[in-house]
Amino acid sequence: MKRKPFFQVHPISPFKVDYSQDTASEVLTAHLYKRIVNYGAFQELVIFCIGTDRSTGDSLGPLVGSQLQKMYPTGVHVYGTIDEPVHAVNLAETIEKVETKHPKSLIIAVDACLGQFTSVGHIQVADGPLKPGAGVKKELPEIGTFHITGIVNIGGFMEYFVLQNTRLSIVMKMADMIAHSLFHSTNLYLRDQRKSSTAF
Asked: Are strands 122-127 and 44-49 parallel, antiparallel or unpaired?
C-alpha cells in the first residue's frame, strides 16, 4: 500500500552534484539540510538504504547505511547495511516494518542507479519516493519522502552485468560522501530543533 503524505511542502527542484568536485560534500550537505527543513512536520528521521553486497554497483546503499551507522547518528534510524541489506527479497517486508514503527517519519531513500556516460559519478536528490529496480526492469514497491541516487555506471544495456562489473572505488567514494552529508545535515537539523524547543 502506498504511503499517504501527512504534510504539505513546497516542491524543491531536483539536485545533482559530481562527487569528484572539491566542494561536493559541503554543497550536498547544504542541499540535504534545506530539503529536510522543507519537510518540517515529521516526528522521526529514517534513512532507508537499498541494495545488496552481492553486486559491486548495487552495494552503494548498504555501504551508505553501514558508514552512517558507524557515526552513531543521534535521532536517526538507519535501515539497510552491508550486514543487513535491504534488497528485492525483503524490501516489501522492511517497508512495512518501517511504516509500522515510524508512521510519521521523514524517510530518505538511498540507492544506486545507472545513467548516461557523462552522468556517472553524479549524486542526485529529488522529492518523492524512490522506485528501486526500475533500471533493471523490476517491479518493486516505492519508498521515501525524498530520495538520493548515485549514478555508478552506464545504463541502457545488460544492466545486471554492468552493476556486477562496476568499480568498487567509485562506489565507496560516493557512499562515503553521501553518508557524511546525511550525518551532518540531519545532525544540524536536529540540533536546530533542540535549540528552538528550549528557546521558549
From this structure: unpaired
- Residue 45 sits at φ, ψ, to 5 deg, of -115, 130
Per the listing, cell 568499480 goes with: 167
Residues 105-121 pLDDT 10s: 999 999 999 999 999 99
pTM above 0.85, yes or no: yes
Give the residue ranges of DSSP H helices in the chain: 24-38, 60-70, 91-101, 159-164, 168-198
Q: How far apart are CA 161 and CA 60, in angstroms?
A: 16
- Per the DSSP assignment, residues forming a β-bridge with 108 are 47, 146
Say which CATH superfamily domain 15-190 falls into: HybD-like (3.40.50.1450)
Paired with 125 in beta bridges are: 15, 148
Task: Name which residue leads in pLDDT, 27 or 8.
Answer: 27
| 128, 39 Cβ separation under 8 angstroms | no
Which sequence spans correspond to the domains of the chain?
15-190
115 grid coordinates = 545513467
Give residue 174's identity as a one-letter amino acid code: M
Question: In 57-167, which residue ranges form alpha helices assigned H by DSSP?
Answer: 60-70, 91-101, 159-164
Q: What is the mean pLDDT of residues 97-109?
A: 95
Report the side by side order of strands in the sheet with 105-115.
15-18, 122-127, 146-154, 105-115, 44-49, 76-79
pLDDT in tens, 53-79: 999 999 999 999 999 999 988 889 999
